[in-house]
Amino acid sequence: MRVTDPGRLAWIFGSSRSGSTWLLRMLAALHRIVPIDDPHIGHHLGVWRPIPLAWATAKEPPKLGTLADYKREKRDYLFSDSYRDTWVPQLRELIATRFEAQTRDYAEEAGGIEEPIVVVKEPGSHAADTIMDLFPESSLIFLLRDGRDVVDSWLDAYRDGSWATDEGAYPLDDGGRPALIRWQSSVWLHRTEVVQETYARTDPDRRLLIRYEEMLERPVRALERIRGLLGIEAGREELERIARANDFSRVPEARRGAGREIRHAQPGGWADRMSREEILAMHEILAEKLDELGYLRPGDVPVRPAA
Questions:
Q1: Residues 6 or more apart from 19 whose CB is under 8 A from it?
Q2: What is the mean pLDDT of the chain?
Q3: How far is CA 226 from the centre of its chain?
Q4: Residue 299 within any structural domain of the chain
Q5: 275-288, pLDDT tens digit by residue?
Q6: What is the CATH number of the domain that holds 29?
Q7: Alpha-carbon distance 157 to 263, whole Å?
Q8: pTM, to two decimals
Q9: Is the separation of the CB atoms in 137 and 4 below 8 Å?
Q10: Residue 78 has pLDDT above 90, yes or no
Q11: Is 102 inside any structural domain?
Q12: Closest CA to 263 of 191, 155, 143
């Protein structure tokens, strides 16, 4: 049985800092699930253009895209549309073979797993469209969170001693906060739009939208929905046990809070941690999409003073 067989592979797409690590940890406790945490396929397939520095130096606010957006029509580009029928099957085989090797190791370490289901948490979700084209029979879990909380979480990650400094982040100077806010707002918007479009063209029987805020309130319900999507046998008592074991309150205080990978289970905290000007800059990019998704509330956007 291969990862490419129908029903064997599922992806968690959305934005980083949206509770995807928590969700994958709960799913990993279910029998048959093999978790793959952050393979970063999307970051290799979807290199950002322009570079983040543009949000601090550009004459006009830049529009975020990827290298493929600019190069796919050029025949010399490795992933050119002109040679799509050549590279798609080869790339699919590469990823599938890599996942199968990890699945065998995981199953052996677990003492054997019959008919494993591979669940991949992919942080580079701006390439969700390409990934689902590679694996059209796989399932899609769209994990959605208020973009303002995502931006706020990334601001926290760029601080002295943060968990993210081991993965390429750095302590942020106060003067750099506005540029990082604009950059991360643009990233959340772009990823959300790509996953929305990919979700819309995915078979309804193989897709699921879960909001972080709802999962926080009813984690068992979220697990029940995913159980149905993946065809896993698990009773409600088991799901309740898994949800309790992974509750935020169970995480030792030394491993959660500011600067930690497990930070705050507090939607809306951005309003208390950003200045008025920072909130305005963030909403200039996010307001329309937040309103479309039902996140924008009266009073969220400060009124600009008269000129």
A1: 143, 145, 212, 215, 216
A2: 92
A3: 16
A4: no
A5: 999 999 999 999 99
A6: 3.40.50.300
A7: 10
A8: 0.93
A9: yes
A10: yes
A11: yes
A12: 155
